[in-house]
Amino acid sequence: MNRIPLIAGNWKLNLDHLQAIALVQKLSWTLEDARHRFDEVEVAVLPPFTDLRSVQTLIASDRMGLTLGAQDLSPYDSGAHTGEISGEFLKRLDCRYVIVGHSERRRDHHEDDAVVASKVAAAVRNGLVPILCTGESANQRAAGETGAVLRSQVQAAIQGLPAEAEIVVAYEPLWAIGTGTPATPEQAQQAAALIRSSLGERGERTRILYGGSVDVDTIAPLMRQADVDGALVGGASLDAERFAGIARYRSHVSTR
Ligand code: PGA
């Protein structure tokens, strides 16, 4: 099964629309200079909502190879839901991806598995590919619950989803996000394999990303794992050179 690797930059609550334009321009030039093959490693940016229109216009007018996505969406498509952004709106902005169930939203906005499932369904209904985030806390790992946590997060989120719907799953252990220390390649592989088996029939074709403190010097060994098909990059995606370096992991000289 040919799963095209995906390197996606989750900007979180960073960069206004003017800063977004500057970063995307620099990212595109850096990748172009390196003759990056976007058909071999897909590179996506996931800016805040207010940046999307500017980045969409830039990508289209300069015919950049980058793909666009958002960081969240409403479970509703329209109506009396103040402050919400629908999947339909995102689709109109040429978004291909949308993050669903990031641990920061589960924590800050009390999103439980039911909310996450309804957002995954809304994404698919509107022709978007959800990047479903999963991951265990340090306590859950210490208690030996990693497998059970990942399995239940995946199964709750994809319940009732049409078999042909495309999704991406990110394994993002909470203890690695924003710490500067990623999971080891072995830990990432073990979790990714478990997630793949939890996906049942759609497992083979579904891309599974690793996320949590990914950087230029840690990406290559992670990407050498059989079940790791890409990365969801937070902090390091805010720097064009670093993010381009991560996307160019295939050109790194092996250090292991
Ligand atoms: P980080 O964030 O790369 O800054 O650890 C990853 C994420 O939370 O998606």
The gist of it:
With 256 residues, this protein is an alpha/beta fold. It is 38% helix and 14% strand. The protein contains ten helices and eight strands.
Which oligomeric state applies?
single chain
**Shape verdict:** globular
Mean pLDDT over all positions: 97
Strand content: 5-15%
Largest sheet: 8 strands, parallel, barrel
Helix content: 25-40%
H and E string: EHEHEHEHHEHHEHEHEH
- End-to-end Cα distance: 26 Å
Instruction: Please tally the β strands and state the result.
Output: 8
Poorly predicted segments: none
Q: Given the helix and strand composition, which structural class is it?
A: alpha/beta
Number of helices: 10
Radius of gyration: 17 Å
Bound molecules: 2-phosphoglycolic acid
As laid out across the biggest beta sheet, the strand order is 1-2-3-4-5-6-7-8
